[in-house]
Write a structure and sequence with these properties.
The chain is 30% helix and 12% strand. By secondary structure, it is of the alpha+beta class. It binds iron/sulfur cluster (2 copies). One iron/sulfur cluster (SF4) binds next to helix 5.
Length: 207
Amino acid sequence: MNLEQLSNRNIGQQTYKMVDLKPTPSTGVKKFTQVVERTFKGELFVGLYVTFREMINALFKGEMHTFKYPLEKMPISPRYRAIHDMLRLLESGHYRCIGCGLCEKICISNCIKMETRYDENQRKEVSEYTINFGRCIFCGYCAEVCPELAIVHGGRYENASEQRASFSLFEDMLTPIDALKQQKEFDGFGAISPNADENIKKTPLAY
Ligand code: SF4
Ligand code: SF4
C-alpha cells in the first residue's frame, strides 16, 4: 500500500461505528432531559442486578469472596518465608538450637549474630542470638542448613513495627513455653524430606 492508498483507504464505514451525536441542547429543560436519558439506561439496572445477586450470595449462601482481615487471614503457603521462628524440643521444652553456628556462617546477608558459652555442665548454650531483619533477605538458607530444625520460617508475615528490633531477639522468635503443644513442625525450607528415613538407611556404614 502506497501513501496515496493509505490516505484514501475507507476505514470509517467498514470498521467503525459512527456515533449518532445529537445536537447540544440549548435550554435547561432539554439538558435535564438529556441527562436523565443518558443515566437511566439498561446497563445501570444490569449492574445493580449483579451487585445485589453477589450480595445475596455472600450473605445467605456463604459465597464470600473476601476476608475480614485482620480478624480472618488467608492461609499462606508452607514454603512462604516469613519471620523466623525458633522451635523447642517437644519432650523437654528446651530450645533446639545447639549453637553450631551454621546459620550464622551461611547467611549471605551477614545478619545473624550469635554467641555461645558453656553452662555449668560444660554443655554449649546460646547466650546471644539476633537476626537483623533490616538486612535479612529471607532467602531461607539458615532454615535449610540448620541440622536441628531449630530455626525455621514461621507464619508471621505482619512484620510492621515501631522498632526494627522487635522481632530480632532469640526470645522473640522462640516458641513460648506455654504454647509448646501448639508448636508445629515446619514443612517449608529445611524440613525433613518425606523419604529421609530411606536415605538414612541407604547410607553406607563402612567408611
Ligand atoms: S533468611 Fe537468609 S538472609 Fe535471612 S537470616 Fe536466614 S540466611 Fe540470613
Ligand atoms: S544452624 Fe540451627 S542449631 Fe545451628 S546455630 Fe543456627 S539455629 Fe542453632
